[in-house]
């Protein structure tokens, strides 16, 4: 559902804050709604962009979303947990990504991409490679999937290599036309593993105190900034509360955010949870609406860059309320936009009664039920593969 802005230049709407533009670093967004990265497993098996992915993201851009994060995209050849994840560890991915970012931009949205290394949350059966992590502590969830699950502690050479892989992937993404590059340091993946005392037991320069645990992330942000300067905005996604004993809590970010900002982040995307607390990554209905907004607002106290809140925000009205409360400047809607990619434009036009609502069944978390790809129970465009046949 595309809106011709020439026809509705100053449309009165009920959500003036949501529909006010905002700058994140060098990038201007037309509104405050973000599509948070979803690994939908729609890429081709070689990690290139498929027609199905093009359609998925084009629908979100058509629907009015201000910033569409694509991905996640894998930065190193030794890591993945899915067979159809987008990749950015080689130039062969550039033509497909160029097309994807252009499709999003031509529809009036800003294209972003999230960069990932899975660390101990990868699967050797997918990559054929040994798993690496800051410390050789198995992931309690992934180790149940593989009888021979084994993870080894990264050497300093591994750390430097992965750092360079993130920077090289960011450069490729910018070359292909991404305007916002998100470094994934949330949800228990490699950079989260480094940041957290729960998963990082190192005693060298990359472990121990807060700065050491943040060192790899800081080096990556600095490296991206040095290479790309203000050509792109840099977003950092963190789990503001890991919801595991001994894990990160909001107050642990007190001294960290300033460090990240000094290296050049332009936006802080605050999520929650790691694999052991999966219910925090995609919160079920039992946790109620917007259960993590207060975590975003706690981190916002330490931040000067725009903060994005996420988690069970299912309407533009609730997004407006959160921005009005001063708890976040940007609001990410995942399931709500997959259920109806036109939720933003329909809300802008006062057509809320036409919005197809997410029923919070969480069947979109395809990996928890062994399904091959993301599907949605209410959006006929994303049917379960068996139902298509
Ligand atoms: C199918 C699916 C895939 C996801 N993949 C990613 C991902 O690759 N990276 C990430 O940071 N978060 C990922 N998430 C988490 C979402 O970005 C988002 O934080 C989550 O859906 C909560 O937002 P919502 O309540 O608006 O759906 C995924 C969630 C789902 C349901």
Would you kindly provide a written description of the structure presented here, covering whatever features stand out?
- Keywords: Flavoprotein, Oxidoreductase.
- Residues 18-346 form the NADH:flavin oxidoreductase/NADH oxidase N-terminal domain.
- It comes from Sporotomaculum syntrophicum.
- This is NADH oxidase.
- Its EC number is 1.-.-.-.
- There is one protein chain.
- By secondary structure, this protein is an alpha/beta fold.
- The protein has a single domain, classed as Alpha-Beta Barrel (TIM Barrel).
- It is 31% helix and 15% strand.
- The protein has 13 helices and 13 strands.
- The protein has helices spanning 51-62, 94-106, 124-127, 156-176, 190-195, 210-228, 256-263, 278-281, 293-300, 316-324, 335-339, 343-348, 385-388, and strands spanning 22-24, 27-29, 33-35, 67-74, 86-87, 110-116, 131-133, 151-153, 180-185, 233-239, 267-271, 307-310, 330-332.
- Strands 3-4-6-9-10-11-12-13 form an 8-stranded parallel beta barrel, surrounded by 6 helices. Strands 1-2 form a two-stranded antiparallel ribbon.
- Strand 10, helix 7 (256-263) and strand 11 (267-271) form a beta-alpha-beta unit.
- Helix 2 (94-106) packs across helix 4 (156-176) and helix 4 (156-176) runs parallel beside helix 6 (210-228).
- The longest helix is centred in the middle third of the chain and has 21 residues, at 156-176.
- The radius of gyration is 19 Å and the shape is globular.
- The mean pLDDT is 95.
């Amino acid at each position: 559902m595309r809106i011709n802005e020439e026809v509705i230049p100053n449309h009165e709407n009920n959500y003036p804050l949501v529909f006010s533009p905002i700058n994140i670093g060098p990038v201007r967004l037309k509104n405050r709604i973000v599509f948070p990265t979803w690994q939908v497993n729609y890429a081709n098996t070689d990690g290139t962009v498929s027609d199905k992915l093009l359609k998925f993201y084009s629908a979100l851009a058509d629907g009015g979303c201000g910033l569409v994060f694509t991905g996640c995209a894998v930065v190193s050849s030794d890591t993945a947990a899915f067979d159809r994840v987008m990749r950015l560890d080689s130039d062969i991915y550039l033509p497909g990504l160029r097309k994807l970012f252009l499709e999003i931009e031509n529809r009036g949205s800003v294209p972003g991409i999230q960069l990932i290394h899975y660390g101990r949350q990868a699967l050797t059966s997918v990559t054929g490679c040994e798993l690496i992590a800051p410390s050789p502590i198995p992931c309690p969830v992934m180790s149940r999937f593989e009888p021979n699950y084994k993870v080894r502690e990264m050497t300093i050479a591994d750390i430097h290599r992965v750092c360079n892989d993130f920077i090289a992937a960011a450069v490729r993404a910018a070359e292909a036309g991404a305007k916002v590059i998100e470094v994934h340091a949330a949800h228990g993946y490699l950079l989260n593993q480094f940041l957290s005392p729960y998963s990082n037991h190192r005693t060298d320069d990359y472990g121990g105190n807060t700065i050491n645990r943040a060192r790899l992330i800081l080096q990556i942000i600095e490296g991206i900034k040095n290479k790309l300067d203000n050509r792109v905005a840099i977003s950092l996604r963190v789990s503001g509360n890991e919801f595991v004993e001994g894990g990160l809590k909001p107050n642990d970010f007190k001294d960290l955010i300033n460090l990240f900002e000094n290296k050049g982040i332009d936006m802080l995307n605050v999520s929650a949870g790691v694999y052991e607390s999966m219910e925090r990554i995609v919160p079920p209905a039992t946790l109620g609406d917007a259960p993590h907004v207060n975590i975003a607002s706690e981190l916002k106290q330490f931040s000067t860059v725009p903060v994005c809140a996420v988690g069970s925000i299912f309407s533009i009205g609730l997004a407006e309320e959160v921005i009005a409360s001063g708890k976040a400047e940007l609001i990410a809607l995942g399931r709500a936009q997959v259920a109806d990619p036109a939720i933003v434009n329909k809300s802008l036009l006062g057509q809320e009664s036409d919005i197809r609502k997410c029923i919070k069944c969480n069947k979109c978390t395809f990996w928890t039920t062994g399904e091959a790809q993301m599907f949605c129970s209410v959006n006929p465009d994303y049917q379960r593969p068996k139902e298509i046949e």
